[in-house]
Amino acid sequence: MLQQLFPLKGDVAPTPLADCQSQQDERLLRINRVGIKGLRYPIQFSNKSSQIQSTIATISLTVDLPAHVKGTHMSRFVEVLNKDGRVIEGQNLTRLVRQLRDRLDAGSAEIEIDFPYFIEKAAPISGQKALVDYNVKLNAIACGSKISHTVIVTVPVTTLCPCSKAISEYGAHNQRGYVTVTAHGEETIWVDDLIALIEASASSEIFALLKRPDEKHVTEQAYQNPVFVEDLVRNIALRLNTRTEIESYKVEAENMESIHNHSAYACIEKPVVSA
Amino acid sequence: MLQQLFPLKGDVAPTPLADCQSQQDERLLRINRVGIKGLRYPIQFSNKSSQIQSTIATISLTVDLPAHVKGTHMSRFVEVLNKDGRVIEGQNLTRLVRQLRDRLDAGSAEIEIDFPYFIEKAAPISGQKALVDYNVKLNAIACGSKISHTVIVTVPVTTLCPCSKAISEYGAHNQRGYVTVTAHGEETIWVDDLIALIEASASSEIFALLKRPDEKHVTEQAYQNPVFVEDLVRNIALRLNTRTEIESYKVEAENMESIHNHSAYACIEKPVVSA
Amino acid sequence: MLQQLFPLKGDVAPTPLADCQSQQDERLLRINRVGIKGLRYPIQFSNKSSQIQSTIATISLTVDLPAHVKGTHMSRFVEVLNKDGRVIEGQNLTRLVRQLRDRLDAGSAEIEIDFPYFIEKAAPISGQKALVDYNVKLNAIACGSKISHTVIVTVPVTTLCPCSKAISEYGAHNQRGYVTVTAHGEETIWVDDLIALIEASASSEIFALLKRPDEKHVTEQAYQNPVFVEDLVRNIALRLNTRTEIESYKVEAENMESIHNHSAYACIEKPVVSA
Amino acid sequence: MLQQLFPLKGDVAPTPLADCQSQQDERLLRINRVGIKGLRYPIQFSNKSSQIQSTIATISLTVDLPAHVKGTHMSRFVEVLNKDGRVIEGQNLTRLVRQLRDRLDAGSAEIEIDFPYFIEKAAPISGQKALVDYNVKLNAIACGSKISHTVIVTVPVTTLCPCSKAISEYGAHNQRGYVTVTAHGEETIWVDDLIALIEASASSEIFALLKRPDEKHVTEQAYQNPVFVEDLVRNIALRLNTRTEIESYKVEAENMESIHNHSAYACIEKPVVSA
């Protein structure tokens, strides 16, 4: 049937197909990163509690390319992922980024895996359980034999404005905010630890299921713990500074202000200290 | 070898170029809408106040296609827009959709224009002025000689939860919500009127610039006017029911809950009454 | 410790908290749909092959609200989902939407579940397997005792322009397109069937992993099977018309044109025939 | 009744209103950036040709905050923008970022302005004119007395795969790609120059309006100029290396592959050389 569609090509396999990618390149410009981006892929993720959860990731895989090579081989990125990319945790991610570097004959390789992560939380008074969704991004770089890991977590929180509370007879504007912590270190950094640390720094943590006594509780708790976006990033930075496994970080908070149609934003960075 | 595949093309330019689109189609299926989508385009929009503002629209232009015609002529959609699409208001939109229908030899034509719209508002106490952004979508359909207009406005508002206020010792959770009203009628429906009507129905309207006395004012106003998402759509529907120019509508409200990572949503529809 | 934070509340449980939602409403406006929207939630989905896959859904759950009731009870939506929403297939979705209607004392209830769905496909020549991602949306409505199901699938495809091929000496512009089919019927409509039917109607189907012989194959196949966006929706509509389980449908195709920065779009609708 | 709820605050309005933001902060953590984000705002932009165009920007404005100060004054960011932010070009942006730094008593200030920008292009054969939309982002930083400018442009292009062309009997897969160049230097970098340089490096540039002879032209041109995503970033880097006004840059290209549902990606960076 295919023969009917392509009668001119005959039955025989074509003689070896040209490999453009392996040709010499004369522009002599090294490419820092080349590969695939935006690939959706089902993964299993396990964190501190070691319970495995199935989720859907959006994945980027890149390598560097020497100045004299024309192109990389895009299909190999998916092959590496298919071979060993279904389960994602610290050690496996190290193995995966090494395999990518080796399979593509590259000097460096980078993997970025972005996925929703769920934690079952009990409502504060009723104790009813429900899942809260967070965004997790894991980045691993193999540069020669050196492996570097970065963990990025985005956590929804409630923030209540201290100024609004202080100046108003009653009430205070509050809103959903999103905190993103980018943390880097040589030891394992647990996603669950970062989430707990962020939630403890806001006016209130967020839940998926709240009965009336729970709603009363979180309303009053937020009112008792007003934080500016500045307070939020400082509270988090203070806590991050006590963690020995975190060497450098960036804390960003964005409040979807309930009184404006734009966000309030703050950021504290602790840079990598060169040896 | 390429010559074998394309014997008719030879060395000389084919003259005239084949017009595939005008060929007969034998599947005998009428196409309801065909055209272009997602075209960004600078327009000028004038509303009730007749003051013209420059903005950037995302535009869809479609026509129907008879069962026996293979394809439409995509370049003509942009030509119609270029000829007469820079200024958008009621009468001009009617002219534009008629031109589209005529230029494409179609039975019906539809235009959808989506753009940010700005209103300068004075803060409630300080009187300081700043621009608030809204989303406006205008839809015009020419079906034969009949022209039909729909106006869709999305308005950011503050909503404060009546339940949270009632059960809590102090405070009440509140958040930014987005209300979308889709309004249809034979007379002109002014965007400014819809926005005013929506803002009057929420716990508080939203501003881009608030000094401290203003922030006190909107905080207290929201606390004094709690609305569920259900109240919000009902308040708006009540007001829409008094407008003679609005024959049918849909009111949707979505609260970006400050205590959850999901939205609360409500919708009231008043359908078109058939004659 | 909580007592220290909230000294005014004492140790005893507050006397029954006000239930604002159950109050009478005097605006006398029925709400068509009220509930929660944008809730992310891990589900398991099984289709025709009955193999279960884990994925992450974005979920809306709504009910109608009688004119005399002030508000719905938002926490119950999540409770219904938690109780029976982890596994999603036809029968279970029917049960879920009935439970939602009953738990909320509503006349009608609606569930919409949107998630990525994966099919392992073998590359056409090398046979190498990899996962392709599709978007699936399942909608179920319980209106009184009547249950109605709608399946919506979005499928990436390759489209190659017949006009560009016909008028050019060599080559033809082609691009990724997205086809969305919304299908409704009383019998079960399998997602896999819709995907196969859509992929067979394009210039070529899409793969996640193609070796060079595969790339040659899909390039030539697309060149041999040029389709306008109009052809694409007609090819699909022809096939849908032969399926007895599909009573009404909408086919939409959007080509992310490689020669423009906007899309070409076409749509055919087969409406519900009233009895 | 409200008084009963809030007995601790008394009846009288607090005068003057507390200025929480100006309080001392004892956490002693400097904040790198704090301000507003996601503000939509109409601006006028003029580039090399000095013709002014009206467009809609999304704007971020931030400053640093000393360790001993509790909060910034969010309303002042909008005040600075309202006073002098309507017209955006090089000199005015310098003035604006200085005013922001001064008005907020900050050591450093940063402005980021993101907007669609339009160029009228004539189709290559018919000469018909239409607007193509690009994305421009301007970043200005005032750090003490030092001002630093960065220009970021995203340009849609056509890319045709060299491998697909080489191995296939006829045709070659091609697609829309997006190139983003981030360019930094002390002299003025013109947006128009960057766009021209990027478009010259792709298989073909993109148009909004093409008649049949134009479509033939761009189809054949793309087939004659195949580029991998690697070629694209190298072609652009070569050209950027000849520009004396550009001291450092990042070139990123993302192809929305027509044969996959993910992107091909490449990036070349030329870092800032420290003095």
Report on the structure:
By secondary structure, the first copy, chain A, is an alpha+beta fold. In chain A, 25% of the residues lie in helices and 39% in strands. Chain A contains 7 helices and 10 strands. In chain A, strands 1, 2, 3, 4, 5, 6, 7, 8, 9 and 10 form a 10-stranded mixed β-sheet that branches. In chain A, a hairpin with a 6-residue loop joins strand 4 and strand 5. The radius of gyration of chain A is 24 Å and the shape is elongated. Chains in contact: A-B, A-C, A-D, B-C, B-D, C-D. At the A-D interface, strand 1, strand 2, helix 4, helix 7 and strand 10 of A face strand 1, strand 2, helix 4, helix 7 and strand 10 of D. Strand 10 (263-270) of chain B pairs antiparallel with strand 1 (31-46) of chain C.
Describe the protein's topology.
Four copies of one chain form a homotetramer.
Chain A: H1 2-5, E1 31-46, E2 52-65, H2 74-84, E3 87-88, H3 90-103, E4 108-122, E5 129-143, E6 146-160, H4 162-167, E7 174-184, H5 191-199, E8 204-205, H6 212-224, H7 229-241, E9 248-255, E10 263-270
Parallel strand pairs in A: 1-3
Antiparallel strand pairs in A: 1-2, 2-4, 4-5, 5-6, 6-7, 6-8, 7-9, 9-10
Helix pairs in contact in A: 2-3
